[in-house]
Specification:
- With 367 residues, the protein is of the alpha/beta class.
- The protein has two domains: 23-70 and 174-334, Rossmann fold (3-Layer(aba) Sandwich); 72-170, 3-Layer(aba) Sandwich (Rossmann fold).
- Helices cover 40% and strands 14% of the residues.
- It has 15 helices and ten strands.
- It has helices at 2-7, 20-23, 72-85, 98-110, 127-135, 147-159, 172-178, 180-189, 204-218, 238-241, 263-272, 282-296, 302-317, 338-344, 355-359, and strands spanning 46-48, 57-62, 90-94, 114-119, 139-143, 164-166, 195-199, 227-233, 276-280, 325-330.
- A six-stranded mixed β-sheet has the order 1-2-10-7-8-9, with helices on both faces.
- Strand 4 (114-119), helix 5 (127-135) and strand 5 (139-143) form a beta-alpha-beta unit.
- It starts with a helix and ends in an 8-residue tail after the last helix.
- 54% of the residues are buried.
- The structure holds ligand F0G.
- Ligand F0G is lined by residues 70, 72, 95-99, 169, 199-205, 254-255, 301, 303-304, 331-332.
- Ligand F0G binds at residues 70, 72, 95-99, 169, 199-205, 254-255, 301, 303-304, 331-332.
């Protein structure tokens, strides 16, 4: 503990962001003596929408700016800090990719080995996420099954082994960390927004945001709490249909989940928030994904764009009224899924290396 605990003050300029464990420690239920295992996660930008708002006052919480490119780093920092405090000797998780990428990095930071179980099969996990896990030297295991089956397997594995820390969002410290996204939104806006739109897969993050907003209202740091819009992909929408999905399908592989582990928490949150779960099609997700990159300059992964697709659907139905202040949580970076970006992009042109050749392919209307 000593060496890890001491490391956090080394080379820290005054005023620099210390990561969520230190910045929010008094608001986290983490053992007081837990070290901060941190990559300086959190403090992500809240970017105003220029063109996507459709008459509402819309902002994007750009969680792709976290150290491993997704919101998972908030939860992982706290979960791994807690695991180290409890003497864990290894980390395990199941994942559609981002949890494994984050677990791999924080395991490296903590000096612990990690076992990551992800679904086998072409396109089951986006390439950037696999690359991150491999780069960090984690033990990456492709399991013959979907995410839900992989999660059931690692839960059973970890339950019988006290020194193996399960870092999926069924670990309460994960949600503790992720609630800090709500804290930041309140700080950035001066209060909670009217609506928070967020993609839902295993249903941990929406539950965490709700906890964060409620805690800030209770502490008098926010006057209100938002209504919640939980966006699921149509082929993986158990919280919309009310029934588990045995074979979830969607282009948004991050949220290809049929039996969300935190379904009970998410249902309670949406009920208390007078919110809604809503299904969006893959075509709506890709439309939002392209719009974000091309019209807003924000490159996120497809699952993240489900939040904007859900927001648009809710604007169209009038559920979110004109002038409402809304935040879409863009959960992961676009580079996570390079194959999708290339598939959606225009084919590059190839020309001779001359000014004349380039002049011939200038954008229309430019001479
Ligand atoms: N967006 C992205 C980019 C995700 O990776 C996930 C979940 C979600 C949204 C949904 O969040 O599960 O808390 O409802 N990814 C998990 C993983 C399942 O293994 O990386 P949730």
């Amino acid at each position: 503990m000593g060496s890890l605990g001491g490391a956090r003050t080394v080379g820290r300029p005054a005023g620099a962001w210390r990561g969520i464990v230190e910045e929010f420690r008094r608001d986290l239920s983490l053992p007081a003596d837990a070290p901060a295992i941190t990559l300086r996660e959190g403090n992500t930008p809240l970017v105003p929408a220029l063109r996507a708002g459709r008459g509402a006052d819309l902002f994007f919480k750009v969680e792709g700016c976290n150290p491993t490119g997704s919101f998972k780093d908030r939860g992982m920092a706290v979960a791994v800090s807690g695991a180290v405090a409890e003497g864990a000797r290894a980390l395990v998780c199941a994942s559609t990719g981002n949890t494994s990428a984050s677990a791999a990095a924080y395991a490296a930071r903590a000096g612990l080995p990690a076992l990551l179980a992800v679904p086998a099969g072409d396109g089951a996990v986006a390439k950037g996420k696999l690359a991150q896990a491999l780069a960090a030297g984690a033990r990456l295991v492709l399991v013959r099954g979907n995410f839900d089956q992989a999660l059931a397997a690692v839960r059973t594995l970890a339950a019988a082994r006290p020194h193996v820390a399960l870092v999926n969002s069924v670990n309460p410290l994960r949600l503790e960390g992720q609630k800090t996204g709500a804290f930041e939104v309140v700080a950035q806006l001066g209060d909670a927004p009217d609506w928070l739109c967020i993609p839902v897969g295993n249903a941990g993050n929406i539950s965490a945001y709700w906890r964060g907003f409620c805690e800030y209202r209770a502490a008098g740091r926010a006057r209100s709490v938002p209504r919640l819009l939980g966006a699921q992909a149509e082929g993986a929408a158990p919280l919309v249909s009310g029934r588990p999905v045995d074979a979830p399908v969607t282009v948004a592989s991050a949220i290809r989940i049929g039996r969300p582990a935190s379904a009970h928490l998410a249902r309670a949150a949406v009920a208390e928030a007078d919110g809604r779960f809503l299904a969006v099609t893959d075509a709506q997700i890709i439309e939002a994904y392209r719009f974000l990159a091309r019209q807003e300059g924000i490159f996120c992964e497809p699952a993240s764009a489900a939040s904007l697709a859900g927001f648009w659907a809710a604007r169209a139905s009038g559920l979110i009224p004109e002038g409402a202040r809304a935040v879409c949580v863009l959960t992961g970076h676009g580079l996570k899924d390079p194959d999708r970006a290339v598939a959606e992009g225009d084919a590059p042109l190839e020309v001779e290396a001359t000014a004349e050749a380039l002049a011939g392919v200038l954008p229309p209307g430019v001479d």
